[in-house]
Model the fold of this input.
Amino acid sequence: MACNHIDHPTSRRDFLKTAGGGFGAVAFSALSGRSLLGARAANPVAAKIPHRLGKAKNVIWLFMEGGPSHLDLFDPKPLLNKLAGKPLPESFDRPVTAMGEVGSPLLASKRQWKRNGQSGLWISDWLPQHSQIADELCVIRSCVSDGINHAGGVCQMNTGSVFGGRPSLGAWVSYGMGTENENLPAFVVIKDSSSMVVNGVRCWGPGFMPAGYQGVLFESGDEPLSNLNNPKGVTLERQRNKLQFLDQLNQRHRQGRESNTDLDARIRSYELAARMQAEAPEAIDMSRETAHTRALYGIDQKETSVYGRQCLMARRLIERGVRFVQLYHGAGSKWDSHDKIESNHSRLCHAVDQPITGLLLDLKQRGLLDETLVIWGGEFGRTPMSEKGDGRDHNPTGFTIWMAGGGVKGGQVIGATDDLGLYAVEDKLHVHDIHASIMTLMGLDHTKVVYMHKGRPERVDLNEGHPAIGLTG
Done:
């Protein structure tokens, strides 16, 4: 016979003592997104508890698509100018490049360099406004990738593999941490033009994970999201009744098809779209920002207005609980500079210099930089050898990215390339290591964020990454 034992608290202290376990369950339910009653399936992007206390809660990834030249931005090489016009010295291994000729003469950098901030960080005159944020930047000069062309390079920088089919980094972060605001997407992607990013949606796709982890694409311009407002004559009550009816049909159709993640994701996307009609209009309405803030991002200038809007949008989204925001500049590989690098990079650097500087300054003054990890870079760098006389080829064997905020120690340089900037030679950081470092900064153990796929435990770093040493303060 079962024995039922129930304690009846006789004082407030007894009540709190016996109810303590229940409070923990309530907290867990809120953080895991699971209903204690089990009425509905758990939201896959509900907020989750990280493995340890990480300073970074959000990520803003400034992706310069096409491959910016590290040799002309953050990694000065005096020897390159000294040997300009001569072939690559015999002491260097012959590099594997996408198009360029190994026998092409070395191309001098026409940049003027100076030390910036208290840290004395080297930044070229192509990014003059960056002098204001030099002490926030951790410049990593020793990055390496396996992608020698844009398709493979962009794919690996986003997913860890040069081949499509794996989850993007934003999907992994959403899987590992969820979102703090279920009325907005956990993962948002914004590109600067109508041109499509190389590989398209695979760059922010979920791969073999459920489709609900895919990034949501916002368009550039005054209307990032279409159809947020109801058509004329459609009242809120009518809309609510329609959505309730559709939900009944969706749930009925879902029965027996629970393994179809695409179906589940589509249902959730409709539900999210309905919730976004209430919250997204305010989130994307930049008319609420002051003239000073708009000027800080360069929105009042023609050349910087597009990326300035993207950067300001990113700040507004992470303020409202969006976990991962990726901003593409130069969509369609516009940073690619096989020729005319002077005119190409001059124009593109001018377009992003003020917006990026404004973003970091704004995050800092609002107290958001400590919890927001900002990442800058492309899929690879450029070679010291010339191509077509006035350009540079792809260089995945040694290039630069930088990180700021989110617990990163600013005003420092990690790693180094050789004297000509062709190969990483000190503290190499492969893309897998970059991804592992980002997860670590967010309080996630990259070895424990595992998704089982066809009986195989999959991780963001393909079991090969290690967090960078010295990245944090």
Q: What stands out?
A: Confidence is low (pLDDT under 50) at residues 1-9, 15-40.
